[in-house]
Design goal:
heterodimer, A: 346 residues, mainly alpha, 15 helices, B: 258 residues, alpha/beta, six-stranded mixed beta sheet, 11 strands, globular
Amino acid sequence: MLARAHLGRQVLVVLGVLLLMVMLFSTTVGPMHILWRDSLDVLIGLGGSNGPADTIITSIRLPRALLGMLVGAALAASGAAIQGLFRNPLADPGLIGVSGGAALAAVAVIVLGGTTLGSLVNWMGPYSLMLAAFGGGFATTLIVARIATTRTGGTSTNTLLLAGIAINIITGAGIGLFTYMADDTQLRTLTFWSMGSLGGALWEVVLSAGSLIVLVLLLLPGLARPLNALLLGESEARHLGVNVDRVKRRVMLLSALAVGAAVAAAGMIGFVGLVVPHLVRLTLGPDHRYLLPASALLGGLFLLVADMLARTLIAPAELPIGLLTSIIGGPFFIALIMLQRRRYSL
Amino acid sequence: MTLGATALGYRIGHSQLLEGVDLDIQPGRMTAVLGPNGAGKSTLLRLLAGEMAPDSGTIHLNGRRYQHWSREEVARQVAVLPQSSSLGFAFTALEVVLMGRIPHASGHTRDLEIAQACLQETDCWHLRHRPFPVLSGGEQQRIQLARVLAQLQDQTDNHPRYLLLDEPTAALDPAHQLLTLQLARRRADQGMGVLVILHDLNLAARFADRVLLLQQGHPLALGPTDEVLTPDRLSGLYQLPMQVIDHPNGQGKLVVSL
């Protein structure tokens, strides 16, 4: 009867299978070509030791593929959740400044890491960057929510995007300031970071970011029904028995956590949170019970493919993946604005 | 067991939006709230729905204050149709109506049956697969009505239920205005307490058991429809000369402005 629910389940299965296949394929692509059969043997632990291929896959390509999937899933799922929270399909973690806030906090840790914060950073290891990014992301989410929420409890698109512009200016200036203060080594890290890259995919990064992201991906679907109700309007959701304030708080916390982990591990990768949920909504509709998991899967797939392109397009050099997603996402965003303008007179 | 308010007051800053309102919404009765723009009708409805706390006075839902019920328990007893809706995401009409079942645990099959029945009742069956945002204002209003009707269906707690409608006929053509109030009337006859905010005095005269007239946040009159809707009172309230005459069909009254 509910054709879309049926379709939703099918799409989730197809995306899951596709994601595994593309992950397998991505471990065969690179300067050294590896047969997919050998790659499969290594991945399921049968390979034993077939020399360099084994090492390349387990210590370089597999962690990188996993990080790509995790970051893509984190950005897309939190994008979908934030759009539900603000009841606005244009709310992307990058556009409204959440990623910028996360990045500013992380950059501060990188640059100040050698000085006052040094001992703290050493003690907390890779988590210090993530916690800082999470804190920055959460703080900006709160600020944006505060600015853009109207008296009646809705959010206005105009205010939301303007707040995003303002916050991106401020965080951009902050990052610029830290760049100015940075020494040469830090500068290289910062550049790589501001354009986004999965090149830093060490296992410890994958595991630390991954643990946070997986936690968020497991908890977010529990908010699907209340998020659906919230799309009707805040007071409508209240009348349906939804604890609106608690749901909003949880969505902000979880998405800031996922975006923070993603930004800390892979830098600023834009537009995934905008493009992916939009594509899912076009096929499956806005029901968060399917939107959230499908966005996570498609986001993982999207970034995995984008990273393969980034690694191979100008080989042996490597394109920053953030540039690539922005090249795809920018025009997409413009198209989206034109469509919206025609439909709702934005 | 009623949804009752005593000595209700509410203000924002220095402006007193509502003062000294006593009102009992009784199961099986339909109460209409009338008054000019800004008289406090919607404020009263939002207070009664527990959406905000009053500054003075008390509200009891079936014998208990709101804070002593859980949110879900309230949602199974009180449903609210808002004046307008701002859903911009492309849920289908059926999906919107199904959201009325969120506070219940009746299972997907039963929820679907209820949603379909409510879509038929509100004359929206043909719209069920259409995306909500592309529907006309009146169609959207009827879908929302179907949603709140679905919300009060199949309640297992056996508490009296209350349907609060804020200008349910505002965007509707005359035929659907009539259909909507007939639906509300039927719910009252089946034992629900119904509160409806209206601007059409004749619809109120025709369907409501009782009328509350509000003037600048104060109750002007509360009582049986025939007794409250008098020419003098209405003329004074709306600052417009009004006459109450017998309906040409011989039943009930008709309010006309002169």
